[in-house]
Amino acid sequence: MLSKFIPALAIAGAASARIVGLAAPKVIAVNETFTVTLLTENYIQSVKDLVAAFALSPRADADGFIGTEYLGSFYLGPDKSNVLTNITFEVTAPATNVGQYLNGVVTSLYGASNGATTIQWSVPITYGDEVSTEQVRSIEGNNVCSSSTPTDPGSNTTTTAPPSTDPTSPPATGNCFPTSTQTLIQSSLVYANALIDSIVQSNNQTGRQNLGQLNGFLGDVSAAVGVGRGGESCNNPPSPSWPPLSPGDSQVRAISILRNVQDTLQAEQGAILQCNDAQAKSIQCQVLRLVDNLDSYYS
User: Fold this and answer.
1) Could you tell me which of 49, 63, 125, 221 has the fewest CB atoms within 10 Å of its CB?
2) Residue 109 pairs with which residues in a beta bridge?
3) Rounded CA gap, 261 and 188, in Å?
4) pTM for this one?
5) Which InterPro entries match (predicted)?
6) Which residue has the higher pLDDT, 137 or 144?
7) Which CATH class is domain 8-143?
8) What is the pairing mode between strands 87-92 and 33-42?
9) What is the rounded distance in angstroms from the CA atom of residue 274 to the CA atom of residue 226?
10) 291, 261 in Cβ contact below 8 A?
11) What would the pLDDT profile of 264-275 be if each residue is shown by its tens digit?
12) What pLDDT shows up at residue 171?
């Protein structure tokens, strides 16, 4: 469903942002200070960014270990969360010029359930006589939050973590989702909000269009997380029959359901960022059941 897009006005109005990449000089110099940059983009919900850390390594990221040539860590917190301007840090290259990659990690909390994620990026660098103005960047980060007691590439000891029995914890292996899944959820959130606005304004024509778009994106999310486009594997019970409500009460009930849909989708984003397959499927089934109930009050 790549032909679908998030309305520009809806995105422009969002006052939230997330960190999506890492940039650094292509060439660094021994004992010279240089700037490391975290790249940001607009996002559908607020994100609580906690901390960033950087190191140099002779290899790219290795299961959550960023390298032995530690450059420093930095608190992010409220002042450096949800900002659309890129975030910069000053670090100093060590005298040992063994690093061929600069690795960075950022730990954040997503969604209403504050799902923890640690994303790692790597960019290739070389040592030279002076720090270059040319930059290298990485946008394709890896979620290493689910690396449970990984093997340290600098150690001769391998430690195997016992399997988790907590159904809410992320799996030890990265059983992740299609890269478009988060975008599809963002689009669902946008159209849920647009539908709420249509209901408030009693604009049924636009409302029906927004409802169709919402159902389309939710079908794509369902397919992405593996419950079937129509929720075939959810086994949701039929929507209960309720006594008819007045138009005003139906409007209030429909908006309440859509608010619950938004909250549940945000929780699903946290599960996806943690690569928690079972939880993402369960949450998506909850979303589909809520939308089924919406039909009783708005169509």
Assistant:
1) 63
2) 48, 116
3) 9
4) 0.51
5) Nis1
6) 137
7) mainly beta
8) antiparallel
9) 16
10) yes
11) 998 888 888 888
12) 36
